[in-house]
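We treat protein structure as text, and this decision shapes the records that our systems exchange. Such a record has a labelled line for the sequence and another for the backbone structure tokens. The record that follows is passed on verbatim for readers who wish to inspect the format:
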Amino acid sequence: MPIDADDNGNDDGSLFCPQQVLVRNLTDVFLRDGGDLRHEAADVTLENITGERPLVRYRRADGTAEAVECDFVAGCDGFRGVSRSTVPASALTEYSHTYGYSWLSVLAAVPADPSGMAIHSLGLAGILPRGPHASRVYLQCAVDDTPEQWPDARVWHELAARFGVPVPAGEIVDKRIVPLRGVVYEPMSHGRLYLLGDAAHLVPPMSAKGIHLALHDTEIFARAVIRQVEEGDRSLLDSYSETCLPHIWNYQAFAAWITDTMHNAGFTGHEGEFRKRIARAELQRLFTSEAANKLFGELTAGTN
């Protein structure tokens, strides 16, 4: 997660904070300041979200049933959470796009050497560090592939072939297929329920913008709640969805561009060669055009 200003307020430096560290730091600050955080809540349900006082019911780990009465509910429970499913289907419009390829995602107990991304006729490949002795491997694959079709030996063979250099093999801890898709639900609120992050939208992981969009939603929502509590003005809450959506669609556009540029979309023959050269021209422009490079930098950093 890039932060585009240093401690002195200068905007020419960047600090990259791993997502898990950011979550840990925010949690520490929340608890330090007296926040009430409850883990392992099961059977969560939302009631009266269009009324004056919504109710969140859940069951604790020991089986005790509890309920929390709210002024507002922030639905931050992910794409398959209960928040969005509480909203009547007739009140939401889904816009979605499924890409014509998926990722095989592998967690391996080996250092990321080499590290980075590679574009190859066999498909995209990536290996990124997840600590000094672990790495995350990504291999473009067919949408109907299963993990069983990718035995460990094939994973290491394909990774080496796509990078064009030998890759040290090691223990594979986890292996799964990740579909690539873009999804947006509009509007992002219903009554006193507000959808944030993956509960409201998905971007393909190639863009690395999931956490960025979630934090942007959170900032907009937090400012709106503060305005309501301190000034009795709910105008920012009323415009929450309209404020968030242009930013979200901007990054859906970026995600679609970078995802299709970096992948072989399954085209063969003349069509495949044409698309390959289009992608090469797109990438070369980033190194030859100051304006293109600046725009890419802004979108990558999340400042556009």
